[in-house]
Specification:
Layout (H helix, E strand, L loop, with lengths): L6 H6 L24 H17 L8 H25 L5 H26 L11 H7 L6 E7 L2 E8 L5 H19 L14 E7 L16 H5 L4 H4 L12 H4 L1
Parallel strand pairs: 2-3
Antiparallel strand pairs: 1-2
């Protein structure tokens, strides 16, 4: 990511003389803040352009304008932080934190694909394919490592946004996988057994979530606490998260 606005341009810009740029040659000041005059002007340009090209949003409503402005500012803030982080030498602690984050993402990816793979062994799960695919690896729980004696345990941290109904539905996939592996239904599996994951009543502090899932995939308290939830979360109609009796035999 490259900064394309110089300090001189940002410092000498006067919004009374016109906008900082235009939608075709859109530029933001990554070495500044979201509140400096250049970036405020850029956010205004983006908001106007977005509302012009998205007629489904009632642009005359101040609440809609404010929602788009807030999301645009949050996106720019993330870009600025990423720019600064990528251009600042990292300490050992930061490198360790980055390594842990990559590890967490990899474990979530493996958990997701493990749950997808088990559907091939149980035809009764075929109808659940689309619901699981919607979740993506981002919808999986994470875990934190703890050493107990000579063994490692992984305490499950459930996403704050995910409903208990969906979590219980996902646990069935894990139970079936453990059963299949124990009975060697999957064939001769090389490698170590899956990690021992211990379920705690612990919710993730992350603000990230998977949008556009069925409404009952989201925890009610979490959903009701979101600003403009219908526009940011964009939930679909509720569905039945359940497994039929044949699967549970």
């Amino acid at each position: 990511m490259k900064n394309v606005v110089t300090e001189q341009e940002a410092n000498t810009f006067n919004p009374e003389l016109g906008p900082c740029c235009d939608p075709v040659h859109f530029r933001v000041h990554l070495e500044g803040t979201t509140c400096n005059v250049w970036n405020k002007s850029a956010i205004g340009i983006f908001v106007n352009r977005f509302l012009t090209t998205h007629p489904e949003y009632p642009s005359e409503q101040e609440s809609v304008q404010e929602m788009v402005r807030m999301k645009s500012q949050a996106t720019l803030d993330s870009m600025i932080r990423w720019y600064r982080k990528s251009n600042t030498p990292r300490t050992k602690e930061e490198k360790d934190e980055s390594w842990l984050e990559k590890n967490h993402k990899e474990r979530k990816r493996k958990l997701y694909h493990r749950r997808c793979d088990i559907m091939f062994l149980y035809p009764s799960l075929t109808s659940q394919h689309d619901l699981l695919e919607q979740l993506t690896p981002a919808g999986m729980s994470s875990d934190k490592e703890q050493t107990v004696g000579h063994h490692k345990q992984y305490h499950v941290i459930e996403p704050a946004w995910r409903s208990d109904v969906m979590t219980a539905w996902l646990w069935i996939f894990d139970a079936l996988y453990s059963h299949a592996r124990r009975d060697k239904v999957c064939g001769n599996q090389r490698g170590s057994d899956p990690r021992m994951r211990i379920s705690d009543v612990e919710r993730s502090m992350s603000r990230k979530f998977v949008p556009e899932l069925p409404r009952n995939a989201y925890d009610n308290i979490w959903f009701n606490s979101q600003i403009y939830a219908k526009d940011t979360v964009r939930p679909g109609p509720p569905v039945q998260y359940f497994h039929n009796a044949k699967t549970l035999e």
